Amino acid sequence: MRCIGNLGIRLLASAALVVGVMPAISADSPAHAAEQPHVIFISIDTLRADHLGCYGYDRETSPRIDAFAARSVRFEHAFSQASWTLPSHMSMMTSQYPHVHGVENDGMSLSRDATTLAMVLGDEGYHSAAFVSWVYLGKRFGFHKGFREFTELLPPKDKVDSATTAAFKAAQVTDKAIEWLKNKEHRKPFFLFVHYFDPHINYDAPEPFKTMFDPDYDGPEGVGTFGWLRKYIKGVHEKPNKIEPRALEHAIALYDGEIRYTDEHVGRLLDAIDETVGLKNCLIVLTSDHGEEFNEHGSMEGHQWTLYDEVVHVPLIIHPPDRTAAGTVVQRPVELIDVATTILAWLDIEAPATFQGEDLKPWMDGRTERVADALAYGEIDRFNKKQFVRTDRYKLIHTDDIGKNKRGVPVQAGYELFDIREDPTEQRNLFNDLPDVAGPLMWVLEQHRRSRPEATTAPSQRRPKREVQLSAHELERLRSLGYVGGDEEE
Ligand SMILES: [Zn+2]
Predict the structure, then answer these.
(1) How far is the CA of 103 from the centre of ligand 1 (A)?
(2) 63-70 and 245-276 are packed helices; what angle lies between their axes, rounded to 10 degrees?
(3) Ligand 1 centroid vs 203 CA: distance in angstroms?
(4) pLDDT digit string, tens, across residues 303-331
(5) Average of pLDDT values for 168-173?
(6) What is the pLDDT of residues 98-129, one digit of tens each?
(7) What is the domain extent for residue 43?
(8) Distance from the CA of 60 to the center of ligand 1, in angstroms?
């Protein structure tokens, strides 16, 4: 839904979904499924695009991912649809914007009538399996919809109070996925989803990765843990502490160590895929649900509070089953909701009408012309209510005037417009200087606001929201990394 020209039609389609009009799924026969490529979808949580070598980073954080990108198609300007795990991953799986799939907050689960990528592939004869390593990708929220096998790799209850064991590490996740690959006969094509959590706070990679990029550090302990970072969170403290430059440098080195550690295991997974079914027989997607902030805009929480590029610009690398497009780099802005639509296009499966993403296959096939009105859109509605729209040059962010955010800190409402080409770190707000640029982008944000269920339908006509009750140990697990509860003022 990125071209301004067809925006109205797509928004109309999404509004129809809200009142329960479900367009039919493709009725293509699955007879040809046996010859179809396997589909592997790898999501590395909290991975900034600009911290990977193939996206220009100067540290050697990603030798295996860089080599994979060189034999794949890399999207230089890919944007997630939210800056935190739950709505962003749900957008990937449903090819819908957060306000359309409705899983925008902790308490919500995917609607029973929603259609996921795994469901469509299952209808086409695919055997699907998922390995996920964080609470927010669990069955609680509806992520298992359409998967034949769904494995939640979460540490036992009695370990959740220790932040370092809040999630399984990449080595264990990879072991499980490889075991699955080797034990299956794969008579049918499969859809394998693998989720890694490691670059997320706490930054605590095993050695030698932990000290790889800052071996001489001898400053205070605890840098890179949520407990240490929370005093620098602007969304929580009206006047957050100022982070010491050396500590910031060390936090970034620890984060980079997590990326390098994950890279090694992603490489191991790719090797196993090659040994078992052959990379040439696979369509492989590698991406992330959001980035991470390192004080670029005065906060160190990690993500979920803002929509600047450090938290929404993510890597997107797609390995086609034939190697024709290897090494292609696509410059136009794209969205993560495009991934599911593009996977189906590669398999010659018609996307359900509920999918809002665009088919990127023409660009993977070498289409190179500039798309002047290509847009990427995203939003958050949690502690703050914000939207962004990004062109290849400009970015407009809108913050709703909700007075104080849900942590009691006054919100700076209004618009921010950035010229990304001149100001890539989004420091100079040009909203009052460039009304001709801002106008059409404001219109785009307005159309999305108008397509929200609460704006288009009476309460009685809305799709019922499915609420989730989290257990005490799930809440504790989330609290250990700052997701729920109000303990930041301690
Ligand atoms: Zn995440």
Answers:
(1) 14
(2) 50
(3) 14
(4) 988 999 999 999 999 999 976 778 899 99
(5) 94
(6) 999 999 988 899 999 999 999 999 999 999 99
(7) 4-19+36-375+469-489
(8) 23
Joined tokens for residue 282:
């696979």
Q: What is the CA radius of gyration of the chain?
A: 21
Cα separation, 466 vs 55, in Å, equals: 39
Identify whether 321 is part of a domain: yes
- Is residue 350 a part of any domain in this protein? yes
Whether 155 shows a pLDDT value over 80: the answer reads no
Kindly tell me the burial class for residue 340, based on how many C-beta atoms sit within 10 Å of its own C-beta (0-12, 13-18, 19 or more).
Answer: buried
Q: How far apart are the first and last CA of the chain?
A: 44
Compute, in angstroms, the gap from residue 33 CA to the centroid of ligand 1. Answer: 32
- Tell how far the Cα of 324 is from the centroid of ligand 1, in angstroms: 32
Distance 432 CA to ligand 1 centre (A): 33
Q: Report the amino acid identity of residue 311.
A: V
Residue 439 C-alpha to ligand 1 middle, in angstroms?
Answer: 32
Give me ligand 1 centre to Cα 352, in Å.
26
How many angstroms is it from 25 CA to the middle of ligand 1?
Answer: 29
Alpha carbon of 47 to ligand 1 centroid (Å): 9
Residue 30 lies in a domain: no
Output the CA 244–ligand 1 centroid distance in Å. Answer: 26
- Residue 364 alpha carbon to ligand 1 centre in Å: 26
Give the lowest-confidence range in 211-220, 225-234, 477-486. 477-486
State the distance from the centre of ligand 1 to the C-alpha of 261, rounded, in angstroms: 17
Contact 250, 302 (CB under 8 A): no
Q: Count the domains in the chain.
A: 1
List the CATH number of the domain containing 123: 3.40.720.10
**pLDDT, tens digit (0-9, with 9 covering 90-100), for 266-300:** 999 999 999 999 999 999 999 999 999 999 998 88
- Ligand 1 center to residue 481 CA distance, Å? 12
Is 50 exceeded by the pLDDT of residue 5? Answer: no
**d(CA 378, ligand 1 centre) in Å:** 15
CA distance 314 to 317: 10
Res. 18 pLDDT band, cuts 50 70 90? very low
CA 143 – CA 81 distance, rounded (Å): 17
Distance from the alpha carbon of residue 374 to the mean position of ligand 1, in angstroms:
25
- Residue 402 belongs to some domain of the structure: no
